[in-house]
Write a structure and sequence with these properties.
single chain; Multidrug-efflux Transporter Regulator, Chain: A, Domain 2; rod-shaped; about 210 residues; mainly alpha
Length: about 210
């Protein structure tokens, strides 16, 4: 910033004490403003010299920073006002209402931006919750499906076991039937032999009797 009338300047220590901020904070704000095209006057030792118009700008900057506004946005706002000479001498006083109006508009934009950021956060949170619900539903469906599969496998295994038991039982019955038939056949054959033996003895008695 060039000196345009208010000739008495201050060094960083005095300005930081007047604003109630640390020297490092003042230096950080000054660098941000310089990055936006603001020019601070410097002495032969390259120290920044702050004039009343500079301090008024920094006071306004502090007010916006106290509202928890981002430093990048605030520095752009203040640099824009400096470019329009809002902090120069009597002009800044005459333009108090204009400055306040501009500040309100800019603060409204910043507030709107914060609302958009909050909306994005809420949307992300909502999507995250929805994703959790979907995953939980998927797990429940998968559990039910697995339960049905396991139940079907169990029923198939039981049915197979029953079939095997029935087959085994049929084999045992068949074996018993075969044994009974064989035993009956042997008994029948034995009876026939006894009958034949009696007929043969009778014939002998007739011949030699």
């Amino acid at each position: 910033m060039n000196n345009t009338g208010e000739n008495f300047g201050y060094f960083a220590k005095t300005v930081s004490e007047r604003l109630g901020i640390a020297k490092d904070t003042l230096r950080s704000w000054s660098l941000k403003l310089e990055a936006e095209g603001v020019k601070f006057e410097r002495n032969a030792r390259d120290q920044r010299i702050y004039y009343e118009k500079d301090i008024r700008a920094l006071e306004n900057m502090k007010e916006l920073m106290d509202l928890q506004q981002p430093l990048n946005d605030v520095s752009k706002t203040i640099a824009n006002k400096i470019e329009k000479s809002f902090y120069n001498g009597d002009e800044s006083i005459n333009n108090t209402e204009i400055t306040a109006s501009v500040s309100q508009g800019e603060n409204a934009l910043i507030t709107q931006e914060k609302q958009m950021q909050n909306f994005k956060k809420e949307l992300i949170q909502e999507l995250s919750n929805k994703q959790s619900e979907i995953m939980e539903q998927f797990k429940n469906d998968l559990t039910k499906e697995m339960s049905t599969v396991m139940q079907n496998r169990f029923e198939n295994a039981v049915n197979e076991a029953v079939k095997m038991a029935l087959l085994q039982e049929r084999k045992e019955i068949k074996k018993q039937v075969v044994q009974e038939i064989e035993e009956n056949a042997l008994q029948t054959a034995s009876g026939i032999e006894k009958i034949n033996e009696k007929g043969f003895l009778k014939r002998l008695k007739r011949l030699f009797g």
